[in-house]
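Limitations
The structure tokens in this dataset are predictions for the assembled complex, not deposited experimental models. Users should treat interface geometry with appropriate caution, especially where small molecules or nucleic acid strands are included. An illustrative entry is reproduced here so readers can see what is and is not provided.
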Amino acid sequence: MMYVRSLTDEGDAKFREYLKNVQEYPRTAKPDLNQEKFSQDLTLEGIDVTINPNKQFRTKMDMAKHLDESFKDADVGFNELIEYNGLWSWLAYVFFDQLCPVEDGERPLGQTERYICEKSYSSYSKHLVAFPYYVYSIHDEKYSKPFLEHPVDYVGNITEQIGSRKYIMSSKSLVKVVHKLYWDENKGIKEGVASRKGPGSFRRFGKVVEQLKINYDLHGMPEKQILNVLPSEFDKWLED
Amino acid sequence: MKRTINHTRKKRIPKGQIDIKVIKKRERLDSFRADIDLDGLGLPGEAQVYVEAYRRFQWNRYDFGRVNSLGAREPLDMGDLSHSETVSFRVLVKSESGVILALAEEVKPSEKQAKTPLLPVDFDNLGHLIWDLEFQRSDGGPMLVLNKNLPKTFMLEQARFDEQFILTVYPEVLRQVLARIIYGEENAKRIDDLPDGWQRDWVRMATNILPEKEPPEVLDPSDSEFRRGEARKWLNDVKKEFAQKRTDEWRNLLDFVERNVV
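Predicted assembly:
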């Protein structure tokens, strides 16, 4: 077990440099970012959370649960962690071999935002550690499933099309609607919902919500009321 | 001339009709006050009013009742947003069916922060203590700390309305705060030198409670003119008089004891 840390500006730059190198040379050794100049000891800030750096996660849900338990054990809430982008970047550094595994001698590195936590919400939603924890801590495990029942290194269509929309993700009712429309307890994400042009798809859901929120207070509406104002193109997902 | 057409018939609430002040405690956002004037917008009286505080992707919503009975319906504490440095607000009026009738977005709190209450309340882990008094505010002023392990709403209700709490806790709080003003090492040496702020406010309140007795003139125990006995007596008299004036609470407490204690 080890105490969590937060990357300093210098640590952030070093991690970025490593990400650049590792793309070209997948076996590049990870720098030691636990040194004082690269990361800050958060116990000094009252965040004395320990994590297991060797823990292997099957899914994003497993990772979010582990972090949630660790934070709760230390009596630290989401609101206290939200400003610590450096913490999320440090966690991505610790679990990097899982977030970006070497496959057939190559590391299929994603966008930097997946590992380095940025300030804007759209970037935050791409982060492979911060976003799963955010979703899990706000929405129940049940409703987080469409976003988190995936391998830890995977950024799915649903995260890109829906997770990246702050208005939707900060509403429990809207996330419940997403779960109802697109999640099957036995099969996972329903087939066909990720279609690029199809009616009622993830992409359409994001766009339709953007339009509806101009006239409707979707944040204040229960799930059933939202389903009633959605256009009929979404009905087919309710029939399954 | 550029013309815009409002297809939605949604009304814009002028920002000049909204005044929001954020209150800070221990350098953190604690709560806010909102004065909202919806007159002249032609909104139905039964329409629901909400204020939302938000930052980044945190979002809190507060029920402000209806257009014809406007007012906060719940404590306006910042909750999860308390760790933020700044927040923005949104004021929303909607119909029962969820249609937005009027809106003001990106409302910034007034520059000037709201005056801190005389005795702000905070919650902390106090072990088996129910309450405590702390002087950890940025201005050194007092704060009533309630045990966070007890239900928050219940404790706030107790602190506001419960006769036993009022008659047990507040006289002692008053005595401790005044004692701090008299004996505190960093304080003014004489009553006339008290700075504007919590010390002067509390002494003013004590003088209102017990107008017939002046507070001690010299506040420095190391000063040869300091009258220890006089200061102690004044503290006890103010405390007693504070309780003495709570006649209604006292009667209610007696009724309660009569009804419930064998």
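Some entries come with short summary sentences. For this one: The longest helix of chain B spans residues 163-183.
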